[in-house]
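In the current project phase, we have settled on a layout for protein records. One protein thus recorded is set out beneath this paragraph:
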Amino acid sequence: MTTALGDEDKPAADAKKEENKKEEPKKIVGVIPDATAKPVLVTNTVTIAGQAVTYRVETGMLPLLKPDGSSKASVFYIAYTRLGETNAATRPLMFCFNGGPGSSSVWLHLGGLGPRRVKMNEDGTMPAPPFGLVDNEYSILKAADLVFIDPVATGYSRATKDEKADQFFGQSPDVESVGEFIRLWTTRNLRWRSPKYLCGESYGVFRAAGLAEHLHSRYGLYLNGVVLLSGVLDFATLREGPGNDLPSLVFLPAFTATAQFHKKLPPDLQADLPKALAESREFIKSEYPAALLAGASLPADTRQKIVAKLARLTGLKPSVIEDNDLRVDSSVFREMLLRDENLIIGRYDARITGRDGDRSANAPQFDPSYASTLGPFSAAMNAYLREELKFENDQPYEILTGVSPWNFDTRNSFPSAADRLSSAMSQNAYLRVLVLGSRRDLACPIDGIRYSIDHLQLAPELRKNITYAEYESGHMMYVNLPDLKKLQQDLEGFVKP
């Protein structure tokens, strides 16, 4: 039977309580910083092109402000500033972001632009785990300071309490939120006098085109240049559908380059890639679109000639082309090109192959090129943040996350940002554009963005501000060491005064 505790027993009981307290494990309070926390500063040195470059890394968050001055989100960023510059306030500055939408900036950051990079095999394939980081002697930090931005819901960026993240999920709110970050970071860091550049990859190209016009019109923040890397300006070049044959055209040169890499072209084209690409690009401007336009009225003999030409330029069997009504999409191509070897090919990088064990499918079950990069980049970023940058956050770093439904500013048509880019270029005649793409990118083929650029409503005199560079690998060309070296040269040449 339990009795009430008498006064004479209290000292002993209190002592027992204290003893039990000491034995209890300590509760660990989660570390979840937001924009109210101070950024973490670290100094380091990297050798670039034989030159020691000392830099400061600033890792932190900035608020996105509502009209009343309260915060609606905290945006995570990592900024690199070269130290020892005599004119630091006027040094070139590049804001960098990836796409998705729903992707963090880890790919551009630790893939090619920052002073540290993921250790991959030289050809861009995955090394054996565990994974690591190495100094990036091909970083562009020697030429420009860098700010890597993670849009809301990616990386560590989060909406504040009682705010919904999906308010940022759309073409316009995305541009507005990233634009507000750029304005505030530029203001707080006294960089309004710096030459300013944007570098966007994939959907980041779509974002960069919108930002170029938005920053100009909303804040009077004029850019010196925009880098459009492996991206899209008009979704009509990517999304197939009834009445839209454009993707069938602009993907063909990428199919040709991929077939050449895997040794599936006829001897004359296999031995001469420039000739193969020239023939492919001529075909999509002449015979091929005419055949697709004809539809069911295409004469049988002409149809057979088109099938034979497509087989020549893609390495596919004529039966595959017939089965797909002359319109082979990238999924079918990735599944069928190497089917005799029981291999599928990558979407992001069509040089990379894998096995999915399903020969009955008409599309690969996964992307071997994405699978080869996700692990190394995830391990590198999570280790880098705490071990080297000393930034602690117990939330997961969201490398690629869902942000659906994404609200495009359009109905009954394909989303496009081409008009915003042409508007920005027309109003700022000094704005230069560098278009970068790879020959074996089956996510955003370079001929797709070439088509969009060629159809910009732009005065002929301003087209001299647009330059191109092509690479041999895929979407993330920087994981391929020869392409990374070329990328550094192309970007440094672009930002030099």
